[in-house]
Amino acid sequence: MRIAAHPAEAIVPGAYLTDEVVRTVLERQCCRCAGCNVPLTAGSTHFDLREPVICGGSRTSKNFLALCPFCHQNQMRRIRRWLAGHRHK
Ligand SMILES: [Zn+2]
Q1: Is 44 helix (H, G, I), strand (E, B) or coil?
Q2: Superkingdom, according to UniProt (predicted)?
C-alpha cells in the first residue's frame, strides 16, 4: 500500500480519501470550491462527501466534494441539521 502525502489529506480524517480521488475531484472542479467557486490551494482544500456514508453515500470520487474551509463548515452544519431532523422519526 502506498502512503499518500497530499497536504489536503492532513485535514481529512477519512483514510478512504486517496490521491486518485483528490486528483479526480480537483480536476472535475478545476481546483475551485464546489460551494462558492473560490480557487482552492492545497493547504485550504477540505474534502467532504456530497452524501454521507451513513445516508447511503459511496466513498468514490463521484460522491466527494472539494470545498474551501468556509463551505466545508456550512456543509457540515447542513448535514448535522439533516441528521437531527431524521433522528426524531
Ligand atoms: Zn467555498
Answers
A1: helix
A2: Archaea
Q: Which domains does the chain have, with CATH numbers?
A: 7-87 (3.40.1800)
Ligand 1 centroid – CA 1 distance (Å): 32
Q: How far is the CA of 83 from the centre of ligand 1 (A)?
A: 22
**Do residues 41 and 14 lie in contact, with contact meaning Cβ atoms separated by under 8 Å?**
no
In this prediction, residue 89 carries a pLDDT of: 58
The CA 27 to ligand 1 mean position distance, Å, reads 16
pLDDT tens per residue, range 61-75: 889 999 999 999 998
The identity of residue 14, as a single letter, is G
